[in-house]
Amino acid sequence: QKNSCVLPEDLKNFYLMTDGFQMTWSVKTDDTPMPLGSMVINSVSKLCRLGGSSMYALPNAPTLADLEDDTDEEGNGDKPEKPHFDSRSLIFELDPCNGNGKVCLVYKHAEPVVSPDTEIWFLDRALYWHFLTKTFTAYYRLLITHLGLPQWQYAFTSYGVSPQAKQWFNMYKPITINTALLSEEADSFVNKLDPNKVFKSKNKTPVLKKKPPSQPPGSQKSMTSAKTSSLAGNSSRK
């Protein structure tokens, strides 16, 4: 109400479920926990608007709107039009990115009436804009899949992440950094699973019991005649 705009439906549903989100995780180096990943969505009270306040505490300091560069050609080719710090756009901070920039919710068309269409943009430390996603839901999925790794938003810029951040990406999310390798070798990141081997039936081979060696027919006849003669001798004695 203060800014005369309506939250997008997916972000509104998110805030109805939870007033912001923050998740951090650490890794152990020499048995000492070191904070690494950070995933943040500002609460409604911290959903501050950018562009109106001064950047510095000095009197007559320039504002972000004063730094607006009108000489940039907007919408060249397939690139979306960049947000403006002046009254043409409404910009709200979603994530301070630990000082590495700002992820912003942007209403690009604020005059004469604020358009309900919003996009998610990344503002780097040099005050350049980089498009991330068209919806908050898509950005939230990006945030989760990138594990909140340091400077992960810079993977969507032309200059990429720093060498130090790239080491963490190689360790925890190599597919993001090695996209060229993925296009050349499609099976390099695919688990090679042979269902025939995994679900192969484990039927045990029945163990055949050894039969006693069969005697030749001639020997059976001789044994039978011997038994008959012995029985006849016993009966004659009786």
Strand order of the largest sheet: 3-4-5-6-7
Quaternary state of this entry equals single chain
- Mean pLDDT level: 77
Number of helices: 7
Structural class: alpha+beta
Low-pLDDT stretches: none
| Helix amount | 25-40%
Query: Judging from the principal axes of the Cα atoms, what is the shape?
Result: elongated
In angstroms, what separates the terminal alpha carbons?
Answer: 128 Å
* Rg computed from alpha carbons, rounded to a whole number of angstroms: 38 Å
Largest sheet: 5 strands, antiparallel
**Helix-strand topology string:** HEEEEEEEHHHHHH
Number of strands: 7
Strand percent estimate = 15-25%
InterPro entries: TPGS2
Region (Disordered): 65-84, 200-238
Biased composition (Polar residues): 223-238
Biased composition (Basic residues): 200-212
Characterization of this structure:
Residues 66-75 have a biased composition (Acidic residues). This is TPGS2 polyglutamylase. Residues 65-84, 200-238 are annotated as: Disordered. 27% of the residues lie in helices and 18% in strands. With 238 residues, the protein is an alpha+beta fold. The protein has a domain at 9-54 and 80-175. A five-stranded antiparallel beta sheet has the order 3-4-5-6-7. It has a two-stranded antiparallel ribbon with strand order 1-2. It is elongated, with a radius of gyration of 38 Å.
